[in-house]
Design goal:
2 copies of one chain form a homodimer. By secondary structure, chain A is α+β, with helices and mostly antiparallel strands. Chain A contains 10 helices and 11 strands. The longest helix of chain A is centred in the middle third of the chain and has 27 residues. At the A-B interface, strand 4, strand 5, helix 4 and helix 6 of A face strand 4, strand 5, helix 4 and helix 6 of B. The structure holds a DNA duplex.
DNA sequence: CGCGAGATTGATGGTAATCAACGAACGTGG
DNA sequence: CCACGTTCGTTGATTACCATCAATCTCGCG
């Protein structure tokens, strides 16, 4: 692994406050690997071997049941996934696959568990990350149970606009079918939700979305920091 | 606070492995309080002041948005709630109210945060509890997105039967309207879901449910340890 | 140019929400 | 002890939303 990569990893929120020795110990046996799009990284019900960090690219978390599949979340740099399974040494509840060409840091689960308890700074970072993920998931349940499909799309657009900093012009970096699954609907219904939002100034050409009247869209979406916040 | 209560608290998973001093420190300023049914304990968007532990009784976690309300979970003894908000010193994402007469242990949030890092055993217990809650919530999202209403009810019945150890006779300890909200449907639809399950041997008289043909019900429900497990 | 994957649109059926009415259970006060 | 009111649960009718199936369209690519 290159020195510059090691330095980049050192800057990750998870490791910033870790002691030098802890970091060095964790880095032994670590893998920093590139993957093409569409590669399955982990599969639900497998035992947790590695903590994964998305250094670059985009990863989709998904789950299946009885022939159906749904997207649970998208993990962007610099995010981690399956931390909970790693910490408690249990099986994965989710599967993961790359959406774009991605670079992933893979840390042996045993190293993470060993580092906890010996390093307060690292432990705090782990707890913070775990709590963040937990709260995001609770928001997701509220989003699902308290809003309609079109409302979820409207709020997703507002959030995405804020996140990417692109203002009124939002560019999708995932297929619409994945967005549909993420929002808990079928691709067909996503199309219809988009045409519903035309009444509130949302227009789209392929993956390029324009939010023509942000106030009108927000009035329809009724965003709520207790559901939408990026945390 | 009585000695026997202190001893009982000491036995909680969260404190079992804590050092003596840590436990003593946390216990200063702790409240062990009784509440009648229907009391609102915390409200979403309030800042996290106390970590709550349900010592006895039953607590409902719920959330509201735009005039709607949904039940997110039921917390039974000996469970905690809003641990994530306490650890990261943020606002609650959920509200809580007692369903039954309950006894609650309330630990000042600052004490919990202070104890972390100085006590490895306690920290591990906190992390374990946090990870458990996280995983339960992920299961809940999968439950919502991958199953129909009747399937959610069927699986809930099977799980409840296993949890309470009552075998084929399940006794509801919450109103059906709350169960409906927990399962993500209206009370009317819960009624209809129950009549759907009659075809699979489920009969009910008031709050007393009988699972007449467990195999038939399971065949319909298709339980999945990656969704249903009690964790 | 032709192919294939994804996106869209239309038609249809099913599931769930809503509105309304009725009935049972319980508690209160007469 | 009973009349009454309230709350909860159930049932029916209706509507809205969403899933499914099918067909067409678009775009990128060989």
């Amino acid at each position: 692994m290159k020195t510059e990569d090691v330095d980049a990893v050192r800057q990750l929120p998870l490791f910033q406050d870790a002691r030098k020795e802890t970091f060095a110990k964790i880095m032994r046996g670590v893998l920093l690997q590139r993957f093409p799009p569409g590669v399955t990284l982990i599969t639900e019900s497998d035992t947790a071997d590695f903590l994964h960090v998305v250094v670059d690219g985009l990863v989709e978390m998904f789950a299946t049941h009885g022939g159906r599949e749904t997207t649970l979340s998208l993990v962007r740099p610099v995010g981690t996934f399956i931390l909970a399974a790693v910490l408690t040494d249990q099986v994965y509840l989710q599967s993961a696959r790359t959406v774009l060409k991605s670079r992933l840091l893979m840390i042996p689960a045993a190293h993470v568990r060993a580092a906890m308890g010996t390093d307060e700074g690292f432990t705090r970072a782990v707890v913070a990350e775990l709590a963040r993920g937990y709260r995001c998931t609770i928001k997701e349940v509220k989003n699902q149970k308290l809003r309609s499909g079109a409302e979820r799309l409207a709020n997703w657009l507002l959030q995405e606009s804020a996140r990417s900093g692109a203002g009124a012009a939002v560019e999708l970096d995932v297929e619409k079918r994945k967005l549909a699954a993420l929002l808990g609907m079928t691709p067909e219904n996503l199309s219809r939700a988009f045409s519903t939002l035309r009444d509130y100034g949302v227009t789209s050409v392929g993956p390029a979305i324009r939010i023509g009247e942000p106030e009108a869209l927000a009035a329809f979406a009724r965003p709520n920091p207790l559901i939408d916040g990026p945390e």
